[in-house]
Amino acid sequence: MTLKVWFDDDACASLLTVGVAALGAAVANGTPDVSYCRGLVDALRASCVAFRVPWRPFLADLCALLATRGALDALQAADSTLLQPGARG
Description:
The protein is an all-alpha fold and 89 residues long. It has one domain (8-78). It has four helices and no strands. The radius of gyration is 13 Å and the shape is globular.
């Protein structure tokens, strides 16, 4: 049996930090590259599975944080399905 190194809240916060930074940077450089963003969202989804972080609440938190940075509108303009819970690339 292995020791539980991460608390669930720590894993979620770490993944949110990466998501906000990477998606925010993609938007800051102009029109975001949808393929890059979709790959990042898929990587975040896979990481959530690995750390047992529920995807839908995570995605809601990510969208809320992106909205406060003004990045959510640009991402949705680039591809309206990018940050939807059931959307697949």
